[in-house]
Automatic annotation (TrEMBL):
Reported function: ATP-binding RNA helicase involved in the biogenesis of 60S ribosomal subunits and is required for the normal formation of 25S and 5.8S rRNAs.
Native source organism of the sequence: Calycina marina
Protein name: RNA helicase
Alphabetized GO MF terms: ATP binding; hydrolase activity; RNA binding; RNA helicase activity
Cellular component aspect of the GO annotation: cytosol; nucleus
Keyword Cytoplasm assigned: no
EC number per UniProt: 3.6.4.13
A single GO BP: ribosome biogenesis
Length: 610
């Protein structure tokens, strides 16, 4: 009788009971034994099933084990360490009402600290009275930091430098600490992080549960592990990618001026659709490329370390909401969120801000022109250049990462392309490479980082091949693209060095004013932030309106496919229905089969009325 109740497969063979139960049981957060209030907060964020790193790390952390987890970007590492910490705090509140700082979360940059703080708020939305978190990376005075810590918040989120500073001043007390989390453990070693972590380790009591999260397991992570961990459970999670998922990687070998030509063709002919992150070598090229795209009516916003922290955070938030489609990010030091002075500065007048901006730009221009840095400086650059915008920041629904300027290492390349194809989606990475024979052949558009492009590309190809991934050539038909060269030349003529310097100064001054003077107003009126746009026109010296439109006579007879062949946009998800719909769709007709009206002036097929 028992066999009669068992399910049969397609061959009428009884299925083992264990497989039936496993099939019925779907992984969910409720199976992890978390507090019901946290489950409500998770559900509010539309998270239903835990990711692999969450399903493996959370039970270990709830048992009190130290955890060292390596998981790729976008795999849900933040919730993997936050949920056990929050659950432990809620359980301790059932027996004691005294408030202590029991959790310290160390992150490498302010942007990450802001993201983690928001995750705490959303996860603890239904138990906000029981959990208080403080972000110490905000630009406030030491007195304000002391007042924030005086109430003994449950969770302190900060950088190693800020943590060490507040430990020295006795503002931060770790006597009752039970949880220590280090997010992006390899990245916190930058900014002289090792020195600050050594100071923090002296203030951390013995027996504290430690959770380390990282995208890679490097020697830096081993150093952090030796400082804080006791026989941790090591999780190496390289989730297998489903068929059709992941990043499709392409490369184009071109001349220096052809970078600008190709990016014009890509955007004006919509060869690649969706949201873009464009990486350039330095801040100056950020504004040069933005001004160039404005000549054709293409809007974009800028992200670099020169902009105020509030502006940078706002740019990322609006990009994730879909307000902006293109971010031009400088990766000159590949560091985002440099530590600023903690002392509160007096309010500046417009003249003071302008003088400060000019001095800041002059200083950087001088440093960029220095031909031979000292050995000490070169050593610091080597240590820092692998990190920056390409790491940690949570960009959502990025369709394409465009390496306008190739990074200096294969490791940095991997981190950059990790901004797309997140959370099970697909994406595309396109890189422009300058052959050594074409380097410095077009001085107005040249950049020193392109000198070693071919060597870096060979390392990238080898590194990706080890992962079973291929870097393919993007099939541009340059004979067809050449028809647009005169438009590129006209646009580049308008983007002079003087114009770049002027708009860079004005943009930074405006962002400083937005960031500082309107900060309190936006705290009280958050909806007004929507009226602050970062993709406004910078108004170069000469605007050529005719460049905004692409005349039909420039297009090849085969249309866009005549330029790129079959290579093009890689969608987020595969859809057979979409393929069938595209296949059956006729030009000049809607999906329902209704014939579209044709403008006779565009078709040149007008007939006179009799």
């Amino acid at each position: 009788m028992s066999n009669m109740k068992r399910k049969l497969d397609e061959n009428d063979v009884p299925i083992p009971t264990s497989q039936v139960e496993e099939a019925k049981k779907e992984a969910s957060f409720s199976d992890l034994g978390l507090d019901s209030r946290l489950l409500q907060g998770i559900l509010k964020q539309n998270f239903h099933t835990p990711t692999p790193v969450q399903s493996k790390a959370i039970p270990l952390a709830l048992e009190g084990r130290d955890v060292l987890a390596r998981a790729k970007t976008g795999s849900g590492k933040t919730l993997a360490y936050l949920l056990p910490v929050l659950d432990s705090i809620l359980k301790s509140k059932q027996t004691s009402t005294t408030r202590y700082t029991v959790a310290l979360i160390l992150v490498p940059t302010r942007e990450l600290a802001e993201q983690v703080t928001k995750h705490v708020e959303t996860c603890a939305a239904f138990c906000a009275k029981d959990i208080r978190a403080v972000n110490l990376t905000q630009k406030v005075s030491e007195a304000v930091q002391r007042s924030l810590l005086a109430d003994s918040p449950d969770i302190v989120i900060t950088t190693p430098a800020r943590a060490a500073s507040n430990l020295d001043s006795s503002a931060l007390s770790l006597e009752k600490l039970t949880h220590l989390v280090i997010d992006e453990a390899d990245l916190v070693m930058s900014y002289d992080g090792e020195e600050f972590l050594q100071q923090v380790s002296k203030g951390v009591p013995k027996g504290v549960q430690t959770i380390l999260m990282s995208a890679t397991l490097t020697s830096e992570v081993e150093t952090v592990k030796g400082l804080f961990c006791r026989n941790p459970a090591i999780l190496k999670l390289d989730e297998a990618e489903s068929e059709g998922e992941g990043v499709s990687q392409y490369v184009v070998k071109c001349a220096e001026d052809e970078k600008f030509l190709l990016i014009y063709v890509i955007f004006k002919l919509n060869l690649v659709k969706g949201k873009f992150i464009i990486f350039v070598a330095d801040i100056d090229r950020c504004y040069r490329l933005k001004l160039y795209l404005e000549q054709f009516g293409t809007k974009s916003c800028i992200l670099n370390s020169e902009l105020p922290i509030n502006s940078r955070i706002h740019v990322v938030e609006e990009f994730n909401k879909g307000v902006y489609d293109i971010i031009i990010a400088s990766d000159e030091h590949e560091l985002l969120g440099d530590e600023d002075e903690t002392k509160e500065e007096p309010e500046k007048s417009g003249e003071d801000i302008e003088a400060e901006v000019l001095a800041q730009i002059d200083t950087q221009d001088i440093s960029e022109k220095a031909k031979e840095p000292s050995k000490k400086k070169r050593k610091m650059d080597k240590r820092d250049k692998d990190y920056g915008v390409s790491r940690g920041i949570d960009f959502k629904n990025v369709a394409c990462v465009l390496n306008f300027d190739l990074p200096t290492t294969s490791k940095s390349y991997t981190h950059r392309i990790g901004r797309t194809a997140r959370a099970g989606q697909t994406g595309m990475a396109l890189s422009f490479v300058i052959p050594s024979s074409l380097y410095r052949k077009h001085k107005p558009t040249t950049t020193s980082v392109s000198k070693a492009d071919e060597k870096v590309l060979s390392k990238i190809i080898r590194h990706q091949a080890k992962k079973g991934k291929e870097v393919k050539p993007y099939a541009f038909d340059m004979t067809q693209v050449e028809a647009f060269r005169y438009r590129m030349t006209d646009a580049l003529r308008a983007v002079t060095s003087v114009a770049v310097r002027e708009v860079r100064t004005r943009e930074l001054r405006e962002e400083l004013i937005k960031s500082e003077k309107l900060k309190r107003h936006f705290e009280e009126n958050p909806r007004d932030l929507h009226h602050l746009r970062h993709d406004h026109e910078l108004r170069p010296a000469r605007v050529q309106a005719h460049l905004k439109h692409v005349p039909d006579y420039l297009l090849p007879a085969e249309g866009r496919k005549g330029i790129t062949g079959d290579v093009g946009f890689v969608g987020f998800k595969k859809s057979e229905n979409n393929r069938k719909a595209r296949k059956g769709k006729k030009p000049g007709f809607t999906k329902s089969g209704v014939k579209l009206k044709v403008d006779p002036l565009k078709s040149f097929k007008a007939k006179s009325k009799k």
